[in-house]
Amino acid sequence: MHIFREVAAEFERPVLLFSGGKDSIVMLHLAAAAFWPAPPPFPVLHIDTGHNFAEVLAHRDRAVADYGVRLLVGSVQDDIDAGRLADPGPRGLRNPLQTTTLLRSITEGRFDAVFGGARRDEERARAKERVFSFRDEFGQWDPRNQRPELWNLYNGHKASGEHIRVFPLSNWTELDIWQYIRDEAVDLPSLYFAHRRSVVHRDGMLMADLPLVRRDGDDPPFEATVRFRTVGDVPCTGCVESSAATAEEVVAEIAASRVTERGATRADDRISEAGMEDRKRDGYF
Q1: How far apart are CA 189 and CA 209, in angstroms?
Q2: Given a cut of 70, is residue 15 above it in pLDDT?
Q3: β-bridge mates for residue 226, sequence order
Q4: pLDDT at 280 over 70
């Protein structure tokens, strides 16, 4: 909450990236607590690839209504239609295309601080981020050009056209997130809890049996009780077999896990550390 208030005091046009996933929902919950009884003094921005889970979009719309914030949507499809991006096809991954849409949305909104829900335990390249992560006038990240952060003091100085990515959850873990969800009774999309659904095996993961996932030659789909540890685009997000149907049960399951959520269930993150760094240098979340 201190970080949210610090950004509101230092910057003119902050915005909170909001996907409808658990980390961004916790971020919005913390922002609401930081400024209560007033609503958060900034909008939320969803970078919409067009390949989202329907349950997540429905929850996104309910959440912004419940918290009384304004929702902005940056559409990857708009950039494809405008010729700024190449269409990867109906089953191609659109996740890597989000960078162009994000940078366009930041420029059009003249946002000078952008809250993100990234955590250092998700992926090694993310551990090089500061809480206040400086981005140049092209939206690019240089790990050697970041400011020291001592004693919870954050340097928000920037020139015109530059901006700061802000990661309030940087030092949280997946377990911390779920303990907070449990303790604060934070509402989440049903995908995060155990449910029966049709799934298929793909690249060592279980994937939802949906039109964006199905491919010729796949093994036959089958029914399983699963939940999603992380939620991204349908074609790159896997699930895990689980019986954890409540936040308390998920906390116990995560406490016993030794595999990171994204490493286990996100096909787009199964790249080298250098590969993720390259994407971040270009402006990725």
Answers
A1: 18
A2: yes
A3: 195, 241
A4: no
Within 8 A by CB and 6+ apart from 38, the residues are none
Could you read off the pLDDT of 162-216 as tens digits, one per residue? 899 999 999 999 999 999 999 999 999 999 999 999 999 987 889 999 988 877 7
What residues contact residue 206 under an 8 Å CB cut-off, 6+ apart? 199, 200, 224, 226, 238, 239, 240, 241
State the pTM of this model. Answer: 0.87
Residue with tokens 């939620």: 231
Nearest Cα to Cα of residue 12 among 158, 209, 193, 190: 158
